[in-house]
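Bug report

Summary: structure tokens for Acetyltransferase (GNAT) family protein differ between web form and batch submission.
Environment: batch mode, default settings.
Steps: 1) Submit the sequence below via batch. 2) Compare with the web form result.

Sequence submitted:
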Amino acid sequence: MVGPVSALMIEAWPEWYGPGGQGDAAADLAKRGRHEGLPSGLVALVADAPVGTVALDATSYGAEPGEGPWMTGLVVCPKMRGRGIATALVAGAERFARALGYPEIHTATITASGLIRRQGWTLARSLDNGYDILRLALG
């Protein structure tokens, strides 16, 4: 399953995971394969094929001291968008953070702010480069 999910990540973030990028999608996925603690990842399956992923990590881009955990790497296969998969992945990350006992969760996004805010997240701050930092109290 690592291969197809890795390919999805490379397609979504070629500047990071593609040729010449600093990231290693397969290595990041291996780290997210944990069943306890952070980082940890979720994969959405349709007919046993991976169509999306999200991770929960201790920190992320835009993090300030004391903020965490962070929902990172939310991506859904372009052909499968608009079917509620991203919404389900966000909800899964929220449940996982809540199960680990965290009082809140954060994310940084430049493209999915509307989708995430519709699930009750609020704007914590906006960065100069267009990223929104969102948070959700898990109470």
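Above is the batch result. After comparison, the two runs are identical; trailing whitespace caused the diff. Strands lie at 40-46, 49-57, 70-76, 104-109, 122-126, 132-137. Residues 10 and 19 are 9 Å apart (CA to CA).
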